[in-house]
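As agreed, record copied across for absentees:
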Amino acid sequence: MVGMVRYLSLDWIDAVHDAVVAAPSIRELAETHDIGVTQVVTDCPEGDVTYHLQVGEGSVHFGAGPAPREDVRLAQSWDTAVGVATSTLSAQEALVRGLVKITGDPTRLIDAAPLFAALDHAFEAVRASTVYE
């Protein structure tokens, strides 16, 4: 990736998409996992942002808007999303404190734990080029 991208901008979503689809481990996991996750982040500097991850049948997509086949929806504020993204707040703490609202089937998130571990690795390069303002 060239240059810096602003967290949750369309450029950031595109950069994450590129990193996710390029990761062989994620493509492999897409053969055995099937999940659609929508993330809604409120109170962003430029308004609310909705993006998704759709995985299944060997394909993976990360993009703007809600998941085409949504199993789980996560909603959180900008401050919470930035805290989790920058590791100043753990995802577990955000959940326990009620800072992330989950609707849908949360067991799907648990079942897809290997996929989310692989996603975290794919996000590393994007994190290094992300500004949070």
DSSP finds six helices and seven strands in the chain. The chain has a mean pLDDT of 94.
